[in-house]
Amino acid sequence: MHESLSKLHSIVGDDGFVTDPSVASTLLNDERGLYSGRAAAIVKPHSTKELADAVRVCFEAGIAMVPQGGNTGYCGGATPDESGSQVLFNLSRMDRVIGIDEQGFTMTAQAGVILAAAQQAAAEHQLLFPLSMGSEGSCQLGGNVSTNAGGLAVLRYGTARELVSGLEVVLPDGRIWSDLKGLRKDNTGYDLKQLFMGAEGSLGIISTVVFRLYPMPRVRIAAWLAIDNIGEAVAVLALLRNQLGDCITSFEFISREALGLVLRSMPRTQNPIDTVHGHYALVELAAFDDGGALNSDFEQALLEAMANTGLSDAVIAQSEQQRLAFWQLREMIPSAEKQMGGSIKHDVSVPISQLCSYSESVVAAMERKFPACRHSIYGHVGDGNIHFNVLAPELMQADAYRRENADAISDLIHGMAMACNGSFSAEHGIGMLKRSELAKFGDPVGLELMRQIKATLDPKGLMNPGKVL
Ligand code: MLT
Ligand code: ZN
Fold it and tell me: N or C: which terminus of the chain has fewer CB atoms within 10 Å of its end residue's CB?
């Protein structure tokens, strides 16, 4: 082991070999404080070559490897185990946007580029990189792709997977598989890049990505809607889509309870609709002209929705500042939950037409079995993906409640989603946290294929062991 560590040190140099205990400790603990690991070494390669050379050293010595991006994941997919025998590969020094093709609408970037920096780089060319989420100031592109991240604009632009047109990956034995041509069309056999997206670093380490870019909207129009329930949110969205077409980029549900957490815990926040309504939704549209025509079509469609669905009120943001304030209310929900002692998080999806009955049945079952717990329900209604988060009853100690009830609560919420042909993990992945759920709910043939793929690409089982499968 000692000899391999010195080889790693000489490959990445002093700048890429973490020895500072305070840096190490942030990298060895996960975002939610659920996992704490140890590592034989933490390396930060600077290029694909350094990464591949370092991986080869580990492969030859039989050392397990854990890839890590911005370390913002929710399922412990980027934390080493407690043995102290694994090498952590942190990608943050591979942070170069390699190029932007304005005519091909693509961006080629190293895996360690921070998502917000990639958005900014595209914006400097008047192009849109549409992947967007609360953690965009610190999550990294490689992690986004490895976990097939979703976020706030999936409705219009898709998840990370749908934005990728080329990939370079360092395989578990140190070979480099590279397909960075970024072609829109290439029907030459298996689409190998699909294997690595959503694999959470269990099949190799993504080193470079080619992304699709989009025209930059000139104007964004957002509205805060008051609605009776999730079913009505779904109906409003369908009406707006039929009336306005593809210009709807986001449609987020925010339950009264989730908004209440934000208003209570975050200073200077206020409900844009100042009456006691059922629940809320935030909708955003993009226009490529001055937005005047779209604005009036939108007002018209909202009036129609008020007449024909459970939309009871709507406020269209009158300034960019107000639009951002609407988004802040939505994006602050996770940190408001954290301030309230944290939640038992869920990230389920069901067919959109069943969202309402699913949510109502879960709330009813929860009220029977876990009386007094608080719900924070919000999320990406347009994608059929809801965060069904559960907080300890008022005045109860959050940690103790979680320890005692989390497994049973998650079983109920996940089990009911699966019974509706849904998913127990719509966007946050599997990592360590949901491995047993995957084993329990996964299709047996699908799981067998996954194991066979894993064994083919990683016969020694060295790449991110203990994650996903
Ligand atoms: C979100 O949509 O805000 C996150 O995916 C969920 C969370 O942070 O709980
Ligand atoms: Zn989400």
Answer: N
Ligand 2 centroid vs 35 CA: distance in angstroms? Answer: 21
Q: Which atom of ligand 1 is nearest to the CA of 333?
A: 3
Domains 2-90 and 97-215 share a fold: no
Which CATH class name applies to 97-215? alpha beta
Cβ(237)–Cβ(382) below 8 Å: yes
Q: What is the identity of the amino acid at 233? A: A
Q: How far is it, in rounded angstroms, from Cα 60 to Cα 56? A: 6
Nearest 5 degrees, angle CA 388-CA 390-CA 392?
175
Percent of the chain with pLDDT over 90: 98
CATH fold for the domain made of 342-430: Alpha-Beta Plaits (3.30.70)
Measured in Å, residue 324 CA sits from the centre of ligand 2 at 18
2-90 CATH pick, 3.40.50.2300, 3.30.43.10, 3.40.640.10, 3.30.70.360: 3.30.43.10
pTM over 0.85: yes
Q: Quote the CA–CA distance of 121 and 116 in Å, as a whole number.
A: 9
Confidence of residue 275 (pLDDT cuts 50, 70, 90): confident
Provide the pLDDT confidence category of residue 276 given band limits of 50, 70 and 90.
confident
Burial class (CB in 10 A: 0-12, 13-18, 19+), 159: buried
The secondary element (H helix, E strand) that includes residue 233 is helix 230-244
Ligand 1 binding pocket (C-beta < 6 A) is 134, 334, 345, 379, 387, 427
Give one DSSP letter per residue of 346-362, joined into a string. Answer: -BEE--GGGHHHHHHHH
Angle CA(324)–CA(157)–CA(343) in degrees, nearest 5?
Answer: 60
Angle, helices 355-369 vs 230-244, to 10°: value is 160
- Rounded CA gap, 272 and 315, in Å? 7
Name the average pLDDT for the chain.
Answer: 97
Question: Which structure tokens are listed for 323?
Answer: 């639009």
> How many angstroms separate the CA atoms of 392 and 408, rounded?
14
| Structural domain spans, the chain | 2-90, 97-215, 219-334, 342-430
What would the pLDDT profile of 390-404 be if each residue is shown by its tens digit?
A: 999 998 999 999 999
CATH 3.90.850.10 for domain 219-334 = no
- Number of the ligand closest to the Cα of 282: 1
Which residue puts its alpha carbon closest to atom 7 of ligand 1? 334
Contact 414, 436 (CB under 8 A): no
Place of tokens 């009158």: 318
Residue recorded with tokens 């309402």 = 356
Residues facing 315 on adjacent strands:
224
**Strands 41-43 and 87-90, how do they pair?**
parallel
